[in-house]
Design brief:
31% helix; Urease, subunit C, domain 1; TIM Barrel; alpha/beta; 8-stranded parallel sheet
């Protein structure tokens, strides 16, 4: 038995993905101080009973500002353009209080489903102004006890074609924007749009997270320009692209070339299964394409990838509960992932998004924050396959939630 100096908290019998047998985790001052078998110390103890402990899920791409809008959408949205126009009309009436309330609802669902870090995209333009930005900044402050929230500010409806958008974007970067995004496919001058986004990223020294493309026509795309800008500006490892549905439509030879290009430039890819599947292929009358880029295959070839939520209960995606474990399972089903791929699918909502967001303090390691969630399974291989309950969570050593296991009432009890 190893004797250690005093801890505030000890997790007993925690199964880690990196350990063959359960270990103890000692926490001091909100950080992990030791990971050893049978730590000997007087401290508050939480016995995990050999269940799987993870450092929490990471959602790299979600829109808290336009979540939970189904109760005010009275019409059918048959395309991406319809969804953009519907939200554009509604957001003129968004208030700070409205955005805060809807965002808080989604954040709380995400927390109890085990998400401990999140990047939310926030629309900045003359229609919404900075109201959504102010609301999400308040959410970041008020929910820091349970989740680390990063704000990616971006012009959803274009930049060069939307007078006033750039000034608002700059103001948000000066006032707490953590990351800058772009949406080149909605701009009348996509090249100038991307050029300006990269300019601002360098000026404010922030990472870039783009809505790159959102269709299934591989005859044109902006991926080449993104990779060119990334390499020219030495932004390797600081650029991510979301959706990237065109990649799903490439034949094998072109896909191999695109994969090598992404890996060489250090551009990461976020796949958004719920929205990509809901909106892509709607023009087909039969044999509908999935429109889902295979993130686990890209990851196997050296491209940093993540699977994320995107939208919840709005015209872009009228579903969702902010559960990344469910999203990983959904992705694995649609992507025809084999059982041997399940660990990689779990990586797509944990280790890989930590790399995408350049989080150097993520993971159950000595010195890192004591962020921990516990899954009701004793084998990490079944986390994605079985969808076990996330039974409790801790942020910097403080418990943030607990979910009671269901009880069966058998006859005679």
């Amino acid at each position: 038995m190893i004797i250690q100096s005093a801890f505030d908290l000890i997790f007993r019998n925690a199964l880690l993905r990196s350990s063959a047998a359960p270990v103890d985790i000692g926490v001091k001052g909100g950080r992990i101080a030791a990971i050893e078998p049978q730590l000997a110390c007087e401290a508050v103890e939480v016995d995990l009973g050999g269940h799987l402990a993870l450092p929490g899920f990471i959602d790299t791409h979600i829109h808290l500002d336009k979540a939970c809008l189904l109760d005010r959408c009275g019409h059918h949205h048959a395309s991406l353009g319809d969804a953009i126009r519907a939200v554009s009309a509604m957001k003129r009436d968004f208030t700070v209080e409205d955005v805060y309330a809807r965002g808080a609802k989604v954040l709380e669902r995400a927390i109890v489903h085990g998400t401990t870090r999140m990047r939310t995209h926030v629309e900045i333009d003359p229609r919404i102004g900075l109201r959504s930005f102010e609301a999400v900044k308040a959410l970041k402050r008020d929910y820091a006890w349970a989740i680390d929230l990063s704000l990616c500010v971006f012009p959803q409806e274009g930049l060069t074609n939307d007078p006033g958008a750039e000034d608002l974007l700059i103001q948000s970067l000066r006032d707490g924007g953590d990351v800058i995004g772009g949406c080149s496919y909605t701009d009348t001058d996509p090249g100038a749009h991307l050029e300006r986004i990269f300019d601002l990223a360098q000026e404010f020294d922030v990472d870039i997270d783009l809505h790159l493309d959102f269709d299934l026509d591989p005859s044109w795309w902006h991926l080449d320009e993104v990779c060119r800008q990334t390499e020219r500006r030495n932004y390797h490892g600081r650029v991510a692209i979301g959706h990237a549905t065109k990649l799903s439509a490439l034949p094998p030879e072109r896909m191999r070339a695109a994969t090598a290009q992404l890996a060489r430039a250090g551009v990461a890819v976020t796949v958004l299964p719920a929205t990509d599947l809901y909106l892509m292929g709607r023009e087909a009358t039969h044999n509908m394409p999935r429109g889902l880029t295979l993130a686990h295959k890209l990851a196997g070839d050296g491209v940093v990838c993540s699977v994320a939520t995107n939208n919840v209960l709005n015209p872009f995606t009228p579903f969702g509960d902010a559960s990344l474990l469910r999203m990983a399972n959904f992705y694995a089903n649609v992507a025809h992932a084999a059982a041997t791929d399940f660990d990689t699918c779990l990586d797509l909502v944990t280790e890989q998004p930590a790399r995408l967001m350049n989080l150097d303090d993520y993971g159950i390691k000595v010195g890192n924050p004591a962020d921990l969630i516990v899954l009701d399974t004793t084998d990490s291989r079944f986390a994605v396959a079985e969808l076990p309950d996330v039974v409790m969570g801790f942020k910097r050593g403080r418990q943030t939630f607990e979910r009671q296991r269901p009880t069966l009432f058998r006859p005679g009890t």
